[in-house]
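All the exercises in this workshop are built on plain-text protein records. There is nothing in a record beyond a sequence line and a structure line. A learned vocabulary of local backbone shapes supplies the integers on the structure line. The question running through the whole workshop is how a given chain folds. Here is such a record, shown just as it appears in the course material:

***
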Amino acid sequence: MYESVEVATISFQPAKWDKAGNAEKMEALFVRAATQSPRLILTTEGALEGYVVMDVIEGRATAAALLDVAEPIDGPYIRRFQKLAKSLNTCLAFGFAERIGDEAYNCALFLDQQGEIRGKYHKVQLAEGTHPSWRFNRVGNRLRAFDTPLGRAGFVICNDRWNPQIVRALVLDGARIILIPSYGDKSKRQNQAVLARARENGVPIVEANVGMNLIISKGEICAYQWGNNQITYGVVDIPLAPSAAAARQAEQNYLQAQTPEMERRYHKTVDRIRL
């Protein structure tokens, strides 16, 4: 009823505003992570430019500077990682500030092992909010899953994870695995929230946070690691998409275990009564 898939997550800490330097470090970490042949490698939110939006909001930088550092979807840095995914023969996923015209969005991107873009997502719940005048910090307005070699998947970015409705909408759109690039809270309550999203929806979650990696499968934490620039591996069990055939197989799996389990419980009951 599941497909077991090995994944890797990288707690990459990017340098603010240093897109060239971050790309070099990201590539090196992706190459290291690929030595164990995971089918997917995920890293953090804002990995290219360093998640600099608060610098603009708090007055340390200009909106024009953020638009300059933001990367278009057909830009040279995206093409670079498309080539890398193909050369490593693995799927790569990461966050970055995407420039569309004269606007910027907090974006996550999924590249398959051929370097093709399979999914793109704009963060829909911004902790800092947004304003019509903030062209440097547009909010997303679509919650859509996308097809990948691992099955249908969905992104949530950082603060999105606190809202059950966001993940639920993606799962209802067919997502069988949720990916979370993050640059934020690493507290116990963060872990509990991500664990809740996995359990609510019956899907695995892979999170790459600056300073922490978290991998959840079948409602339990199967890998967790603290620290920056760490590579964490785990195997997630991705459930099959709902179908009559999958339902009948699950039914048979249970019924095969039913007789010995009922017998065990019967003997336990009898032994208790005799005592």
In short: The mean pLDDT is 96. The radius of gyration is 21 Å.
